[in-house]
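REQUEST FORM: STRUCTURE PREDICTION
Request ID: SP-0412
Submitted by: Lab K.M.
Chain count: 1
Length (residues): 112
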Amino acid sequence: MENLANALARLKRFDESAALMKDVLAQRRAVLGGDNRLVARTSVNIATLLTASGRLDEAQAAFAEALPRFERAYGPEHPDAVHSVYAYGVLRFKQHDYVEAERLFARHWRSR
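STATUS: Completed
RESULT:
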């Protein structure tokens, strides 16, 4: 189902994609628990999707929850965790929080 949600996002059908991803996340949490890698990845995907769709306040809340979970599951130096830090920086830049965006971009750069 997450693949379908990703396809919908690429078609810019963000509302459908977000609803489907949230269903996937709920199912994975119920079956796998909160700190599972798939749960962490889906959480970051939702945050990134919300950023792309312009729902920036929702995206910030999603990243605040998802990024620590992702880093616990994969480790902060994992390439996907590093990319997630960059994606969060993009969100903060779009929100005009340039100080936080710079901090996140610098963290991304140091981890590469």
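NOTES: The mean pLDDT is 93.
Reviewed by: T.R.
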